[in-house]
Amino acid sequence: MKLSTFKGGVHPPENKKLSSAYAIEEAMPSTKTVVIPITQGGAPNVPCVSVGNSVAKGQIIADGTGAFSVPVHASIAGIVKKIEPHLVTGNTEALCIVIEADGTDRTSYLPPLDPFSCEKSAAIERVRQCGIVGMGGAAFPAHVKLNVPADKTIDCVIANAAECEPYLTIDERALIEDADKIVDGLAISMYLTGAKRAVIAVENNKAYAVENIEQAIAKSGSSNISVKLLKTKYPQGGEKLLVKAVLGREIPSRKLPADAGCVIQNVGTLIAMSDAFRLGKPLIERALTISGGCCETPKNLRVPVGTLIGDLIPEVIKLKPGVKKIISGGPMMGFSMMNAQFPVQKNTSGVLFLSEKEVSLNAETPCIGCGNCVNACPCRLTPVMMMRSVKAENLDAAIKYGLLDCNECGACAYVCPAKVRLVQYFRLGKMKNREIMEKNKANAAEAQKGAK
Q1: Do 135 and 240 belong to one domain?
Q2: Given the DSSP bridges, would you call strands 285-291 and 350-354 parallel, antiparallel or unpaired?
């Protein structure tokens, strides 16, 4: 197969051999307790339960009324002990529902549903009811993505199995262990979006898994699902770059893949979709990679959503001395955490325990204008000028140079010899821009109200 890719990007050490050979194993928190954030993608939710309530596994415990609302379910059967703020990924606090297991395995799943014989609206509602969001990291509501607007035409669904982040191997294991479910979820996605074909995109460092995927495709009897090998390069799994590499198309500035005629689904999301229809099972478990130089037992786990990472240590995760950084996600786009007492969420793809040799502890020095960041940027932006504009509080200039098109992949920061924290500047700039937009919106609403 010819290897497709994109211009720019970087190729950091992969470090995937630490965990890639380990099959996914089931694990439970030592405390038999989960801490479940009430919102995990989509519009904000409110709790549907109270302290003291008994809940079954799969029961909705938080939901909202908006079109982008995605319910959250109990991942274990037990008693609601607390509803309170708790540390979550990103080092912020979010309202969480604390459930203590009651020793039973009571479930509250939906009845199985044939996605190909029911109304498409009912099938899309099933995806929402089961709380499915993008599991590659963004946690975008899957039912919204599958409900294609009338003015858009989707001709291809792309299964994102690139997994370009170093260390992470959970998608790789899914290709080996759950290929049938991936193909099933892909067929469902094609049917719901009206796409005539689908492509499973895999980086060539996982080429050995192609035979297994093709066997699953042959078993399904589908002739319009294919596999495409991509060059191993970061950030190959980014939506814009994936569409460019797989289909040769450009997603327009500040637009979505649907504007380029495609829908992208992470392989974990496709597995969750298959379970939602075939088993009636909501998204209540998360498979993730545990790795890093200070992890004595790198592995791939499947745990209930809401499992505190600290409650897996040391029974499931054994660590070596000298942990310098804990990262939720991958090392390029993940979040450095203050401690391990944060819950696994629907979009938690991995947790890394890194040693001093694996992290950059160098202080930021002045930008020397070398241009390395421009060459590395896969979105063909000018990171150096975006950074300088944000520092100068000139957001209009930053936006002109591409701030709002930045996917925060971190390739620019990786190659920066001055160790400038470029992504942090971009996030700051975007945050300030959102604040200005919200303020302008509020002022316009107030003016309109006054005019009446």
Answers
A1: yes
A2: parallel
Peptide bond into 314 cis (omega under 30): yes
Tell me if 15 is assigned to some domain: no
Instruction: For residues 372 and 381, give the distance between their C-alpha atoms in angstroms, rounded to a whole number.
Output: 12
pLDDT-derived band of residue 2, with 50, 70 and 90 as boundaries?
low
Q: Strand pairing partners for 285? A: 304
**Cα separations (Å) of 424 from 57, 372, 418?**
39, 18, 14
Strands in 224-340 per DSSP E = 225-230, 262-266, 285-291, 299-304, 325-328, 335-337
Burial class of residue 59 in the structure, from the number of CB atoms within 10 Å of its CB (0-12 exposed, 13-18 middle, 19+ buried):
buried
Residue 173, in any domain of the structure:
yes
Question: Looking at residue 126, which CATH number applies to its domain?
Answer: 3.40.50.11540
Instruction: State the pLDDT confidence band at 253, using cuts at 50, 70 and 90.
Output: confident
Helix (H, G, I), strand (E, B) or coil at 200: strand
In whole angstroms, give the CA distance from residue 125 to residue 254.
27
Based on the domain organization, do 133 and 245 belong to the same domain?
yes
In degrees, to the nearest 5, what angle opens at C-alpha 197 toward C-alphas 195 and 203? 120
Tokens found for residue 260: 């380029």
Q: Which residues contact 373 (CB under 8 A, 6 or more apart)?
A: 383, 384, 412, 413, 415, 416, 422
Of 243, 262, 278, which closes a domain? 278
pLDDT tens, residue by residue, 127-138: 999 999 999 888
Question: Hey, how many other C-beta atoms are within 10 angstroms of the C-beta on 415?
Answer: 18
Same structural domain, 127 and 270 = yes
Residue 225 pairs in a beta bridge with 198
With 70 as the cut, is the pLDDT of residue 452 above it? no
- What are the distances in angstroms from CA 92 to CA 29, 89, 342? 22, 7, 10
3 state DSSP class of 210:
helix
Choose the final residue of a domain: 278, 312, 333: 278
Spatial contact of 25 and 302, defined as CB atoms under 8 Å apart: yes
Distance set, CA 258 to CA 119, 155, 191, 344, 440 (Å): 22, 9, 15, 29, 29
Residue 355 to residue 324: CA distance in whole angstroms: 5
Query: Of 428, 422, 440, whose CA–CA distance to 393 is shortest?
Result: 428
Same domain? For 273 and 378 the reply is no
- 61 part of a folded domain: no
Domain of residue 416 covers 372-451
